[in-house]
Amino acid sequence: MRIVVCVKHVPDIQSERALGPDGRLVRDGGDGTINELDENAVEAAVVLAEQARDAGDEAEVVVVTVGPDDAEDAVRRGLQLGADAAVHVLDDAVAGSDVFGTAAVLAAVLRRLGEQAPVDLVVTGMAGLDGLTSLLPAALAATLDLPQLTLAAEVTLADGAVTVRRDLDHAVEELTAPLPALVSVTDRANEPRYPNFQGIMAARKKPVETLTLADLGVDPATVGAAGARTEVLEAAPRPPRTDRVLVTDDGQAGARLAAWLLERDLVRTTPATGEVL
Predict the structure, then answer these.
(1) For a FRET experiment, which of 115, 176, 238, 244 has its CA 20 to 30 Å from that of 109?
(2) Assessment of whether the complete model's pTM goes beyond 0.90
(3) Which DSSP string do the residues of 94-144 spell out, in sequence order?
(4) Is the pLDDT of residue 10 over 70?
């Protein structure tokens, strides 16, 4: 069993974010970290690998990322969480890639790994917390022509197939696909483990392979800003709100709030009695 987890290095969501002159998110603030939702993907993969080993099978978890020098921190975190090996695609030509370019690079990594040993399962998080596009899992599955089972709240493997549970608003779905397949997991799938001292020390000795686009046979003109299919036309910081009203409750705050909502037609009333619906 070989599982590959795609992770992303993103700015800390607790930090102040900024847009560069090109309208894109500034990523060199020195506060980058692994995309928090990707920790759920790593945890899901590590648990599946542990279950395979408990059953007497060999298992390996490989974490993969694409990004500048400090993106290695993301795969290092994946190793601390229990992954066995890592791949970091480091190439200046990747900068500015949209989801299609990123999927093309990750697909090239997966094909390369597949030449070494079959990849049974690809796992991703449900979204990147920097752009919140949530498109990477579908784009990667389409590029690799893999069945995709997205937004999984539970993942199980049995008899050469993967089964996921999806919790919808008014229903629960169970989907199954033959391996190899791609699964994205939600933050409800598990509780990522906290790496202990032993795991942190062991991660330092685990291999991180650094690859360039040339190593992967990817034409630089097809990725990065040059190959992007999407373009940021305009972006600006959200202006500060100026319409806030601070109401001190002197016993009439509820009535004033109701009046404010009615004035702006934000609540409906019955025509006959005027009662709020």
Answers:
(1) 176
(2) no
(3) GTT--HHHHHHHHHHHHHHHHHHS---EEEEES--TTT----HHHHHHHHH
(4) yes
What distance in Å separates the CA atoms of residue 247 and residue 228, rounded to the nearest whole number? 48
Q: What is the mean pLDDT of residues 125-137?
A: 86
Place 130 in a pLDDT band, splitting at 50, 70 and 90: confident
Of 44, 49, 76, nearest in space to 63 by CA: 76
Q: Compute the residue count for the chain.
A: 277
CA distance 252 to 90: 61
Nearest to 160 by CA among 122, 124, 121: 121
Residues 178-204 have pLDDT tens digits of 999 999 999 999 999 988 888 889 888
Region of 251 on the Ramachandran plot (φ > 0 left; ψ -120 to 50 alpha; else beta):
left
Give CA–CA dist 48/2, Å, rounded. 10
Residue 108 backbone phi and psi in degrees, to 5: -65, -40
Cis previous bond, 180, omega within 30: yes
- pLDDT bin (cut points 50, 70, 90) of residue 150 is very high
C-alpha 268/C-alpha 47 separation (Å) is 51
In contact, 53 and 2? CB cutoff 8 Å: no
Where b means 16+ CB within 10 Å and e means fewer, 35-54 reads bebbbbbbbbbbbbbeebee
Which of 74, 69, 64, 62 minimizes the C-alpha distance to 10? 74
Q: Which two tokens stand for residue 43?
A: 């945890």
Judge whether 146 and 183 are in contact, CB under 8 Å: no
